[in-house]
Write a structure and sequence with these properties.
The chain is α+β, with helices and mostly antiparallel strands. It has 3 domains: 156 residues, Transferase(Phosphotransferase) domain 1 (Transferase(Phosphotransferase), domain 1, Orthogonal Bundle), CATH 1.10.510; 120 residues, no CATH class; 105 residues. It has 18 helices and 9 strands. The protein has a 4-stranded antiparallel β-sheet with strand order 1-2-3-4. Strands 5-7-8 form a 3-stranded antiparallel β-sheet. A hairpin with a 2-residue loop joins strand 2 and strand 3. The longest helix is centred in the C-terminal third of the chain and has 36 residues. It is globular, with a radius of gyration of 31 Å.
Length: 512
């Protein structure tokens, strides 16, 4: 590919020109020389358009690569396409939806609000071949980024970052994956704060993802109001944590403007973002990483990062991460209200960025979501650790889900069968013991009164064991009914479980 005459960074004063002639020309054409460097970096990406704009959006949550002022500005980068695909150009939906209005552009699709049979819907139309970008386009991006190798932005110009960018774009362009995830999220078997729209199966096609439109108050408007900003931020933080820790999904965009506060207290979506799954094998490590950061336990947090990123030798990676963390210079934050836990997580991430490790995409997006959350805290919000406060209800739902899963149909049947066998074995053993006691009583009628007292005590102990076993079976059955039912039946089952628990406590106390 022939090299461009001049890099896109030169006219914004970010890199020196390659020759004296170019330096003279560039000096007269520098755009907004009085602007701070982060502002000029953002302008260079947005004005270049195409992949550069998308790369700017990708970098907006990369606290491991760029300081805070860059991230805040890159969140405002807008996608501007010369040609957009209208729903009227697709024969499969052309005559079936009406009143289509453009809503927003995503990296690999255009989203429209429309109507289908008097029902408000959202139609997401995916661009062909992941936005139409070729290997030549990516080589051009890599060539331009190579000019930043000796600049403050050199960390974004590595091959690893470009590889992660392409992986992020691939998730954005995968319509089938998004459709499958949304279909699975239609019926969540436990209560959640997050709400997901319903697919319209009769309108789906290879390039179209169509789902019901959700109605609610825009989160961005609520964050701009001093009275309701704190409550809105709490609900959004709880929703983001719930998605990652309970539903094992991560929002690939994490833009406040894309969220809605629903009338029933839930959190919905203006348009459905690309969703990236959290691998099951790393779910516990991700949870421990977050809780360790909230508790200020850097050693434990680095252990979890090392497990996820290191593979063969996590101990050596942990030591290296702790060394990088101790060598970090504190980042100056002016008028920043980011929670302490977000600041700690960003510091861990910056330490990770100074190593040669390649974290998986889901870990990048998890950090991105929390960074964007920290950047969205209004200055007038009361000082409180937003992540810590929002984590407790999510942990409650997670515990309820894990317990419900343990008492699910298949596992519950195994538990009940095992308990039944244990109960029958206990009854048989109790019968044998009672028979032995009776035989001893018949053979030793002349035994003194204190010995009779010991025999009666033994009988009461055996009876208490049997009754405790029965109470345990009833308690587990009532608990399962409480988790899988609703309404008055759930209240009755909960009350029964409580009564059984009290009875078990009393009976166990009688055993001794």
């Amino acid at each position: 590919m022939p090299a461009p005459v001049q890099s896109i960074w030169t006219k914004h004063g970010l890199t020196p020109a390659a020759s004296a002639a170019f330096r003279k020309s560039a000096a007269s054409q520098v755009r907004a020389p009085s602007l701070p460097r982060p502002n000029r970096f953002r302008l260079a990406l947005e004005e270049s358009g195409g992949l550069f704009t998308l790369f700017g959006q990708f970098l907006s949550g990369r606290a491991d690569l760029l300081p805070g002022p860059y991230l805040t500005l890159l969140r405002t980068v807008l996608i501007q396409r010369e040609e957009m695909i209208s729903p009227s150009s697709l024969p499969e939906i052309r005559d079936r939806i009406v009143q289509a209005e453009w809503v927003r552009s995503t990296p690999c699709s255009e989203i429209y609000a429309a109507t289908f049979q008097d029902r408000p819907i959202m139609a997401e139309i995916f661009l062909p071949e992941a936005g139409g970008y070729t290997n030549s386009d990516f080589r051009g991006l890599a060539w331009q980024l190579s000019h930043l190798k000796n600049s403050p932005e050199a960390s974004v110009a590595t091959p690893a970052v470009l590889e992660q960018f392409r992986e992020w774009l691939a998730f954005q362009a995968d319509a089938d994956r998004k459709r499958t995830m949304l279909r699975h999220l239609e019926e969540i078997p436990f209560p959640c704060l997050s709400r997901f729209p319903r697919l319209l199966s009769e309108l789906q096609s290879a390039r179209c993802l169509i789902y019901e439109r959700m109605e609610g108050a825009p989160l961005a408007d609520a964050l701009a109001e001093p009275e309701g900003a704190g409550r809105a931020l709490d609900r959004w933080a709880e929703s983001l944590l719930e998605q990652s820790l309970l539903l094992s999904l991560l929002d690939a965009d994490a833009q406040p403007s894309n969220y809605l506060l629903l009338p029933d207290g839930g959190v919905g979506f203006r348009t459905l973002p690309a969703l990236v799954p959290v691998p099951v094998e790393w779910h516990n490590e991700l949870l421990q990483y977050l809780t360790a950061a909230i508790a200020g336990n850097s050693h434990r947090a680095m252990q979890m990062l090392a497990r996820i990123c290191a593979g063969a030798n996590p101990y050596a990676v942990e030591q290296m991460l702790l060394e990088k963390l101790s060598a970090l210079q504190p980042e100056l934050r002016i008028q920043s209200m980011a929670p302490d836990s977000v600041v700690a997580l960003e510091n861990y991430w910056r330490a990770l960025g100074r190593t040669s490790l390649k974290p998986p995409l889901f870990l990048h997006l998890f950090q991105r979501n929390l960074s964007v959350l920290g950047q969205s805290v209004p200055p007038e919000t009361p000082q409180a650790d937003l992540i810590s406060e929002s984590l407790w209800p999510v942990l409650g739902r997670l515990l309820q889900f894990r317990l419900g899963d343990a008492l699910s149909a298949e596992k519950g049947q195994e538990w009940l069968a095992s308990l039944g066998l244990l109960f029958l074995t206990g009854v048989r053993q109790a019968g044998i013991v009672l028979e032995q006691v009776r035989d001893n009583d018949l053979a030793l009628e002349i035994e003194s009164e204190p010995e009779d007292g010991r025999s009666a005590k033994r009988n009461r102990r055996v009876a208490a064991v049997i009754h405790s076993g029965i109470g345990l079976v009833l308690f587990l059955f009532s608990l399962r009914m409480a988790l899988q039912s609703s309404g008055s039946l759930q209240l009755a089952a909960t009350a029964a479980a409580g009564v059984c628990a009290v009875a078990i406590f009393i009976l166990v106390a009688r055993i001794e």
